Amino acid sequence: MTLLLSAVIFCIFVMSLDMTIVGTAIPKITDDFDGLEQVPWYGSAYFMTFGGFQSSWGKVYRYVPLKITYLLTMALFEIGSLVCATAPNATAFIVGRAIAGLGGAGIAAGGYTVIALSSRPERRPVYVGAIGTTYGVAAVLGPVLGGVFSDRVTWRWCFYINLPIGIAATAVILLLFKVPGNARITVPATWREKLLQTDPVGVALTMAAIICFILAMQAGGQSHPWNSGYVIGLLVASIILMILLVPWEIFQKERAMVVPRLIKQRFLWSSSIYQFCYGASYNVLLYYLPIYFQSVDNVSPIESGVRNLPMVIAVSLGNVAGGFLMSKTGYPVPPMIAGAAIATVSSGLFYTLDIGTSDGKWIGYQILAGVAWSIPFQYSLNIAQANVEPQDISSATAIIFFAQIIGQAFALSAAQSAFVNVLINYLSANAPHISTAEVITTGATGFRTAFPPDQVLEIVRGYMEGVRATFAVAIGLAGVSFLSAFLVPFRKMGGGKPETPAGE
Question: Which CDD domains match (predicted)?
């Protein structure tokens, strides 16, 4: 039994590792693939499918045998990892990231169920806690492993590593996992009903809206002016698609990806807004601090990963502290307000970073940021689960995760657009003799060897201004999360009956 549960935890480990290992590797990836042009897709493609299909996989687990479905999600994740590891160009890499995100969403949705059915009730909290620890360990190891692989072998090992671990874990689950005979978890339904329950139209509208937004951010100010019909058309299309999602979800009712009767309740829509912005602001820092370290400070990928440790360790420890604080006070809103306020200040401190900033400053800023982004990070989820009936917990959880992951997809593309546009504008104004097109296509570390030494300093300054622009995006997102925290109902969480949303 221990072997089976360990296999599930390793599946979750490689899935969660994929969220953090890429950030440190991106500067090296840009050296091989089309420079900076495709960077917004490297993170957003994974988060787009991960968030978009989270709810759908939850529905699939209800209607398709658990073991078959879980093994399918692992197969998709492994295929995506293999495509990334062997990708000959940026397009193939992005496709691999999207496939891995699709599989990862299913791993995240099904892991808790597999553990629940494979363990005795008295031992179940221990294993569920182990999953939370796994996410924390992956968050700490991700940046370091990304740096080690990029520096010592190749960034492709960031994805090759998933193959032996995932295959071994999948084999154990295939051989050892059996759904208990008294656990009837598959709901009988026609194939048409099974398909409708996954809300394919809702997923398609969400994916299309994100893709249009990313394409607009990728083109705006670079291949097309911001006021061009191409960019404006894509932005308008993204907005229209998101608007169309609302009546469609209302029409779908209980089949919806975002269940209307739940999301219309204040505690859930306000918590979703908070999580959308709060998680997105943290992810922007997680992805662009490595570019600051490697491109501006010119440190190796390994050292860059080590330099990220103050924040990720603080986040891991803060998550534990946040759970303890909640158990003692029972009031989630004050820490949510304080956390978002400190996150806004922390993002502002990162904005002050410059070429040659002392170690003490970026270490201190990261520790402060880690505390800010960790203690209340799970509180939106706690609020959602505490205020719905037991049969709605999975749907409420899926809505919070949907908001968090989709927020990261939108934020990374917006941050990359800000980064590239500011970099181009700086070089055009201060070093017009340097080809901005060549800078963009060279890569985040390759420019130091591709350009003469007298031009490298100006490019580094341009990179610094671009990174600052991404920190400005984080400031804005953290600020919105601070304001949205005041919309969350001020209630003490207890173990009684969920509160009704009367008056909301």
Answer: MFS_Azr1_MDR_like
